[in-house]
Amino acid sequence: MVIMDNSRKNKKNKIRPGFGLPDYFNFYKKEYHKNTKYNVTRSEFRNICNDYNAAIGEKIVMKNFEFKLPYRLGVISMRKFKPRLKMHNNILTNHYPPDFKKTAELWERDPEAKKKKILVRHLNKHTKGYIFVLKYNVSSANYKNKGVYTFTPIRNIKQLINIATKEYNIDAYIL
User: What distances in angstroms separate CA 86 from CA 119, 124, 132, 149, 162, one per listed residue?
Assistant: First the structure.
């Protein structure tokens, strides 16, 4: 008998960052705002940061750019990998991403599948089974406790990766 394990590990205790965009604006206002001729409001500061991050994300995805973070904090780049099914103690682990639309359709047709929480998975035939991700590489970073930090791209970047793989046939290095 084979049992499917659809759980994701290491997602239990997520620590939120201590600083955000309002804190960065307050720092800018305190340190640099008085020493410059540019008078930037909070909303302009937010728009500048959002536009900059969107431009960097687009360059990473569309041109396969490796973004080196300043002060030797690591590198963010796009990579691809082919997930494999794994067996551990007669439990089949599947790490292909779920197709939520087809899963909802299955659950409407079959209440037993909903009860068992069976998921329909993407096979990514348009990319020959590869999954594209943004990877935060800390091998060149110069700080302690590197294994504690993770990088999760925002939803817009994930959608851009999806569009780029389907329409523009982009490629990346294998993980």
Answer: 17, 18, 20, 26, 25
By C-alpha distance, which of 26, 16, 9, 4 is closest to 152? Answer: 16
Q: What residue type is assigned to position 34 of the chain?
A: K
Supply 15's token pair. 């620590």
CB 78 within 8 A of CB 164: no
SS3 sequence of the chain: CCEEECCCCCCCCCCCCCCCHHHHHHHHHHHCHHHCCCCCCHHHHHHHHHHHHHHHHHHHHHHCCCEECHHHCCEEEEEEECCCCEEECCEEECCCCECHHHHHHHHHHCHHHHHHCCCCECCCHHHCCCEEEEEEECCCCCCCCHHHCCCCCCHHHHHHHHHHHHHCCCCCEEC
Residue type at 154 in one-letter notation: I
pLDDT at residue 4 tops 60:
no
Residue-wise pLDDT tens digits, 45-88:
999 999 999 999 999 999 999 999 999 999 999 999 888 888 88
